[in-house]
Design a protein that fits this description.
The chain has 447 residues and is an alpha/beta fold. It has three domains: 8-40, no CATH class; 65-365, 3 Solenoid (Pectate Lyase C-like); 393-445, no CATH class. It is 19% helix and 27% strand. It is built from nine helices and 28 strands. The protein has helices at 8-16, 19-40, 80-83, 309-313, 336-346, 355-365, 403-408, 429-436, 439-445, and strands at residues 65-69, 89-93, 95-100, 105-106, 111-114, 123-126, 130-131, 136-144, 156-157, 162-172, 177-182, 185-190, 193-195, 203-208, 211-216, 219-221, 229-231, 233-237, 240-242, 249-250, 258-263, 266-268, 278-279, 285-290, 293-295, 305-306, 318-319, 389-390. The strands form three sheets. The protein has a 20-stranded mixed beta sheet that branches. A six-stranded parallel beta sheet has the order 4-7-9-11-14-17, with no helix packed on it. It has a two-stranded parallel ribbon with strand order 20-23. Helix 3 links the parallel strand 1 and strand 2. Helix 1 (8-16) runs antiparallel to helix 2 (19-40). It is globular.
């Protein structure tokens, strides 16, 4: 029997007759009206399949223009700098190699940077910092600073913005910090590599007042401290912190209230490490922790101990019995040892790692035996020359989708108009293509 239509007015009238009447005679309506109301709420679209955390709903350049990076020059038509200078763009790469920048690059809002579209080993942006704006999707790129940039410069800056997700990004060689995030909201870093901060500070990241920030399945390595420094409302899930120098994860250590949920992380000491895997908390740091491990013996094996309440309280943190942010999150949490394996395999621009990231991952694989904190990128071996490779994929209508792929999908390979058409999935045809380039990796990490 099919239930009759139910109106909101009908339900309200019955409620006015008293909850007892409604409960006894019309309890099936509760289910129906609940489903009805739920169906009215629009489902939010993920940035891409596998996007997690508070930045997962960034839409980037969806529906906007398409810009092809065609060369490795610092500026001008077809350059990375020109590509990201205007909002509402999806940036694709017809070239792979090293982009050496002189001045800082400022990325416009409402932008998708699809590093996975580059051929070969992908794209490395080297030499100075890159700053980002609201509503951005940034995937599969390497950002490396340099000792030649200003003393207080960071490699990646994401200040005063909302809705951004960094996915499989390598961030290295920052002078003050590798990464700086200040007064931002709804931010995700997932499967990123944040490592080898250089002089004068050699720090990982400073988070100054961001709210609803997710950092999960990232590798923090070769930084003297601040892995990160969390003056924030943050969930820190399934990260690996390796070969810190003076200290690993640093509390907010200020008079302001900060909230840190730490779950399933693994702290692994390396040759440069002290035993201070936690440092500089105060009573204003409100910490929830579960399933975190510390391996301090540097014996080449993953055999750490469970981190306890005492590890935090002796640093003066205030412990919470319930998490602050995890109930609002969709991050799939793994046991810490399993997360370590995933991070080793996936962190950074890992569709094809370059020699520098391979070296850094090699340190982690030694489980305490190898690794170093460097003063300059030259001490680490420097940024190697990378062979410039141009894509040989045919794209007659220049819409970012290969002709063969369009034909296979029943699209018009001679018209760019269909690139921004939305599918039932909620993604445009162009997004379906660029997302397909990482499908195998996404499936492996979400199993």
């Amino acid at each position: 029997m099919v239930a009759p239509p139910v109106s909101i007015k009908y339900v309200m009238n019955r409620l006015n007759q008293g909850p007892h009447y409604f409960r006894l005679l019309h309890c099936p309506l509760i289910v129906l009206i609940s489903l009805f109301i739920t169906s009215l709420a629009p489902a939010q679209q993920l940035a891409f399949p596998g996007a997690e955390g508070f930045g997962r709903f960034a839409s980037g350049g969806r529906g906007g223009n398409i810009y092809h990076v065609t060369n490795l020059l610092d500026s001008g038509k077809g350059s990375f700098r020109d590509a990201v200078s205007q909002p509402k763009r999806t940036v694709v790469f017809d070239v792979a190699g090293l982009i050496k920048i002189g001045a800082k690059v400022s990325v416009a809002a409402d932008i998708t940077i699809a590093g996975q579209t580059a051929p070969g080993e992908g794209i490395t942006v080297y030499g100075n910092g890159v700053s980002f704006s609201s509503n951005s999707i940034v995937r599969y790129l390497r950002f490396r600073g340099s000792i030649n940039m200003s003393r207080g410069a960071c490699t990646v800056v994401a200040d005063s913005l909302e809705n951004i997700i960094f996915d499989h990004i390598s961030i290295e060689w920052g002078r003050w910090d590798n990464l700086h995030i200040k007064k931002s909201k709804n931010v995700t870093l997932q499967y990123c590599l944040i490592g080898e901060g250089i002089d004068p500070q050699r720090f990982g990241a400073l988070l100054e007042g961001p709210e609803d920030i997710t950092i999960h399945h990232c590798l923090w390595t070769g930084n003297q401290s601040r892995n990160p420094k969390a003056k924030a409302k943050i969930e820190f899930i399934n990260n690996v912190i390796y070969n810190w120098g003076k200290s690993g994860f640093v509390g907010g250590h200020s008079s302001a209230d900060h909230y840190q949920d730490l779950v399933g992380n693994y702290f692994i000491a390396g040759p440069s490490s002290t035993d201070n895997f936690l440092s500089m908390f105060t009573a204003t740091d409100h910490v929830y922790h579960q399933g975190n491990y510390a391996d301090l013996n540097k014996d080449g094996k993953l055999d750490g101990r469970l981190i306890t309440d005492e590890d935090f309280t002796k640093e003066n943190a205030t412990l919470l019995k319930e998490p602050t942010l995890l109930s609002k999150s969709n991050v799939k949490v793994h046991p810490a040892a399993e997360a370590c394996t995933l991070v080793m395999k996936e962190a950074g621009a890992s569709l094809k790692r370059d020699v520098i990231d391979l070296r850094i991952i090699g340190y982690l694989e030694s489980m305490g035996k190898s690794g170093q904190i460097f003063n300059t990128e030259a001490d680490a071996g420097g940024q190697s020359l990378v062979k410039e490779i141009h894509s040989n994929i045919k794209d007659a209508d220049h819409d970012g989708m290969p002709d063969k792929w369009e034909s296979h999908m029943g699209l018009n390979a001679k018209s760019a108009a269909d690139a921004t058409d939305l599918n039932a999935s909620g993604y445009s045809n162009l997004e379906e293509y660029i997302n397909s380039l990482t499908t195998k990796q996404t499936n492996q990490t979400t199993k």
